[in-house]
Amino acid sequence: MTIQGAFTILMYALAPFLWLIVAGVVVLVAVQLIARLSGYRTLGYRCLGANLAALLVGLSGLWWIPAFTNSQLGYVATAFDWVAMMGAVIGLAIAAWLVLHPLSYLVRGKRQA
């Protein structure tokens, strides 16, 4: 399979979820922009609650990612399937952290900085 063929398959697979991807990116950028304009710095602010919540969101992906794609976790059988699933879970946790960490800064204010 060529790279162009792989990208074609990927685009067909992502097409039904494109609106969700765009909405997630808009939320992520908006929260980051508002927090940074309010003084948020990634390494200068710590929030255990945001870290734990992002971890839980990532782990919840093991349940809802297969359900979202009309599949089951039992169908994840090969090593490549597990690598793809773990990549999705890690990506989900990172995306959740990128939203929840600055959001907690905005909600809790600068008193924790």
Number of DSSP strands? Answer: 0
| Strand fraction | under 5%
Main beta sheet:
none
Instruction: List low-confidence stretches.
Output: none
Compute the number of helices.
Answer: 4
Oligomeric state of this protein: single chain
Structural class determined from secondary elements: mainly alpha
Instruction: Calculate Rg over CA atoms.
Output: 17 Å
Roughly what is the average pLDDT, rounded to an integer?
88
Q: In which range does the helix fraction lie? A: over 70%
- Principal-axes shape call: globular
Order of helices and strands: HHHH
Distance between the termini: 50 Å
What would you say this structure looks like, in words?
- This protein has 113 residues and is mostly helical.
- Helix content is 73%, strand content 0%.
- Helix 2 (18-37) packs parallel to helix 4 (79-108) and helix 3 packs across helix 4 (79-108).
- The N and C termini lie far apart (50 Å).
- The mean pLDDT is 88.
Structure characteristics:
single chain; 113 residues; mainly alpha; 73% helix; globular
List the helices and strands and how they pair.
Layout: H1 3-14, H2 18-37, H3 48-68, H4 79-108
Helix pairs in contact: 2-4, 3-4
